[in-house]
From TrEMBL:
Entry GO terms, CC: endoplasmic reticulum membrane
Domain of life according to the entry: Eukaryota
Protein name: dolichyl-phosphate beta-glucosyltransferase
Keyword presence, Endoplasmic reticulum: yes
UniProt record similarity statement: Belongs to the glycosyltransferase 2 family.
Listed EC numbers: 2.4.1.117
Length: 370
């Protein structure tokens, strides 16, 4: 019987060959980095930013809102964010099939806003004037009719409804609302009312603490379920004690969440940090965020992601542009009726974040300075 034996031997790479491979890999990586850097836009001068802003304002928004006092057509044209602010606060609420939950949210928000409009003890020297913009993201239920009832009650100068022709995602709805807002400050809030609306004052106070109003890119304040009421996740224990001892002006923050969502949220935060490149923000996904008008112009004009990971993109851009960012604790309660399937949403967000990083790195997506 014939026996055949096969002897396999491994010959290592010669040292010079291995060294050449390493050098080539390093050169490719450096080349990609230099190419991406070359493709990234350089910051514009203040004069160039002002010129582009004026040009965009002159073009108008091309969008309309229901106005019961506007004659036969009952519609008026939205302004654009590229025009000067004409109210103190704009509240943008995206809504998709929210007829069951939106009414309570609007009632709470408008009660607070009406009270503040007659209060002279606020945090800003500006008079408290406001608008609330509901952005209907292609709803198939009675969301638009419900929102129009609030326009009839409060007037179209205070409550405006922007109707998108089809469902495009929460990120797209928020972007469209921001780009037609009139406020010096712009607040993003969820339609389910998960965040107590009067906690806006925590964000407002922090905004006036950190914003340099002469800075061309403003500031951003993020509502958070994970930080102290003092508004800084790295605040010392002595600072927290001093804050809470000052007459009880800053109450304890509560965030009530299902334990499974908490666990998945922690995992998502790691994903945001290491894949998304967003650092030192513990809660990127709370739907309660405040933007100075200057920061909103550039961030929302640049924003590409249309669905759930758009918050990560906004914060990634803000950190890249060195816009001041603060994180402030808010009261938050999980509201029944969510349409989000958490595991599927996290997978989709991870893919969106990866796509975002690759496209900005390669220069496919560019920052649009406003």
């Amino acid at each position: 019987m014939l026996h055949v034996s096969v002897i396999w031997s491994w010959t290592p790479f010669p040292p010079m060959t291995f060294f050449s491979v390493v050098v080539a890999a390093v050169m490719v990586a450096v080349g990609w980095g230099l190419l991406a850097t070359a493709l990234r836009p350089r910051p514009l001068s203040r004069a160039a930013i002002r010129f582009k802003t004026a040009a965009r304002a002159a073009r108008g928004s091309g969008k309309f809102f229901y106005d019961p006092k506007a004659g036969k057509e009952k519609k008026s044209s939205f302004p654009t964010i590229f025009e000067p602010a004409s109210v103190y606060l704009s509240v943008i609420i995206p809504a998709y099939n929210e007829e069951a939950r939106l009414e309570h949210t609007l009632q709470e928000a408008l009660q607070y806003l009406e009270r503040r409009s007659t209060d002279t003890t606020g945090y800003s020297p500006d008079p408290f004037t406001y608008e609330l913009i509901i952005v209907d993201d292609g709803s198939r239920d009675a969301t638009v009719r419900l929102a129009h009832r609030f326009t009839d009650r409060y007037g179209s100068d205070k409550v405006r409804v922007l109707v998108l022709p089809q469902n495009s995602g929460k990120g797209a709805a928020v972007k469209e609302g921001m780009l037609v807002a009139r406020g010096k400050l712009l607040l993003m809030a969820d339609a389910d009312g998960a965040t107590r609306f009067r906690d806006f004052e925590y964000l407002e106070r922090k905004m006036h603490d950190i914003a340099d109003w002469d800075h061309e890119l403003g500031a951003v304040v993020v509502g958070s379920r994970y930080v102290s009421p003092l508004g800084a996740s790295n605040a010392s224990s002595s600072e927290r004690a001093e804050s809470s001892a000052g007459g009880g002006s800053v109450p304890q923050i509560h965030a009530l969440r299902d334990w499974r969502r908490k666990l998945l949220g922690k995992g998502f935060n790691l994903l945001v940090k290491y894949l998304g490149g967003v650092h030192d923000i513990r809660d990127t996904q709370c739907g309660f965020k405040l933007f100075a008008r200057e920061s909103a112009r550039t961030l929302f004009l640049t924003q590409h992601l249309k669905r759930w990971a758009f918050d990560v993109e906004l914060l990634y851009l803000a950190q890249r542009l060195r816009i001041p960012i603060a994180e402030v604790g808010v009261n938050w309660t999980e509201i029944p009726g969510s349409k989000v399937r958490v595991v599927r949403a996290i997978v989709n967000m991870a893919l969106d974040i990866l796509r975002m990083r690759v496209r900005y790195f390669l220069g496919v997506w560019r920052i649009e300075y406003a």
